[in-house]
Automatic annotation (TrEMBL):
It comes from Triplophysa rosa. This is AAA+ ATPase domain-containing protein. Pfam families: TOR1A_C, Torsin. InterPro entries: AAA+_ATPase (IPR003593), ClpA/B (IPR001270), P-loop_NTPase (IPR027417), TOR1A_C (IPR049337), Torsin (IPR010448). Gene3D superfamilies: P-loop containing nucleotide triphosphate hydrolases. Keywords: Signal. The keyword Signal applies. Belongs to the ClpA/ClpB family. Torsin subfamily. Residues 1-20 form the signal peptide. GO terms for biological process: nuclear membrane organization; protein localization to nucleus. GO terms for cellular component: endoplasmic reticulum lumen; nuclear envelope. Residues 76-221 form the AAA+ ATPase domain. It comes from the Eukaryota. One of its GO terms (molecular function) is kinesin binding.
Length: 317
């Protein structure tokens, strides 16, 4: 009789612990999805080793992220907006950032990626209203349980202006919203907005025979150029209730179009991951990509996208 009661008690133990949060404590204890101790030297090394041909973005991201991670009391969340043509490393760099911040890198449950046309394909007004409240809840819920959460918005230029408006309070200098502080969160916006300006600047530079790595875009000039294009594009989500205008975006970061040599490095990186190295093949594959403008053929049309698929055609196992 007595032993029976103890047995029942024993069975109930897990239920009790779940309810009292002891379970939370233990799962937290064994949880390996947490922050890494931030090491800016290591971050710089990783960027230099992995990201090709983006000296401006590299330096800005290195300084901005390192400064932010080292600040124990930042006044606002870090908000970066990455711009440039397709396939030149925007999405890729977010993975590099994530693996330097979280133990589990881009797979961390604290990294939230939204692709505008997929997650918020706003059709009706009711739907947009639903996305708005959902997004607010998600950001609020996740940041309240993990302050250093990261939110990546891809195709930001296609985002509904109302949705951007809804997000604005989170990006601002606010002590807290409903008791939650957002100052340790990181927001990264990705888009092709401004790409024409960026490409034209790079092209002019090249035509003048200057060294690409010396292209120091005076940030303000760059920003003005990008603003102009964004603001003239009537369909752009950036256009309306100006994230940029209100200085909620901390850094507007240009990504340059990639040249043949960068594509070659991308091929070599892919080869290395397959444990093969062959400079001739790397050169051949890089040359197989298409380049523009038609006369000079300097920049890769797809950047380093599809390099892997092209490479597969040249390796026989
Ligand atoms: N600058 C670069 N350095 C090294 N690898 C790169 C670079 N750019 C692109 N790559 C390689 O090409 C792949 C595709 O690039 P990525 O997805 O970052 O393009 P993107 O700039 O986000 O383009 P889109 O605007 O189309 O989304 C990356 O996963 C990476 O392997
Ligand atoms: C956190 O964000 C994810 C989307 O990335 C969402 O599914 C989840 O419900 C959010 N969590 C909270 C507590 O709001
Ligand atoms: Mg991308």
């Amino acid at each position: 009789m007595k032993s029976g009661r103890i047995f029942v008690l024993f069975l109930m133990l897990p239920i009790v612990t779940v309810e009292t949060g002891v379970f939370d404590f233990f799962s937290g204890f064994f949880d390996n999805d947490k922050l890494r101790p931030f090491n800016s030297k290591g971050f710089g090394k990783d960027l230099r080793k992995s990201l090709y041909g983006q000296h401006i973005a590299l330096e800005t991201i290195l300084k901005a992220v390192s400064g932010f991670m080292k600040d124990s009391n930042p006044p606002k969340p870090l908000v970066l907006s990455l711009h440039g043509p397709s396939g030149v490393g925007k999405t890729y760099v977010t993975k590099i950032i994530a693996r330097n911040i979280y133990e589990m890198g881009e797979m961390s449950k604290h990294v939230h990626t939204f692709i505008t046309t997929y997650h918020f394909p706003h059709k009706t007004q009711t739907e947009s209203a639903m996305y708005e409240s959902q997004l607010k809840q998600w950001i609020h819920g996740n940041v309240s349980s993990f302050p250093h959460s990261m939110f990546i918005f891809d195709e930001m230029d296609k985002m509904n202006p109302h949705l951007i408006e809804a997000m604005k309070p989170f990006l601002d200098y606010m002590p807290h919203i409903d008791g939650v502080s957002f100052r340790k969160a990181i927001f990264i916006f990705l888009s092709n907005a401004g790409q024409d300006k960026i490409v034209n600047l790079a092209l002019d530079f090249w035509r003048k025979g200057k060294v690409r790595e010396e292209m120091q875009i005076n940030t303000e000039e760059m920003e003005t150029h990008i603003y102009e294009q964004i603001f003239n594009d009537k369909s752009s989500g950036f256009r309306q209730p100006c994230l940029i205008d209100q200085h909620l975006v901390d850094h507007i970061i240009p990504f340059l179009p990639l040249e043949l040599r960068h594509v070659q490095w991308c091929v070599l990186a892919e080869m290395a991951s397959l444990n093969i190295i062959d400079l001739d093949v790397a050169h051949t594959v890089a040359k197989e990509m298409s380049y523009y403008p038609p006369e000079e053929k300097i920049f890769s049309i797809k950047g380093c996208k599809t390099v892997r698929q092209k490479l597969m055609l040249y390796i026989d196992d």
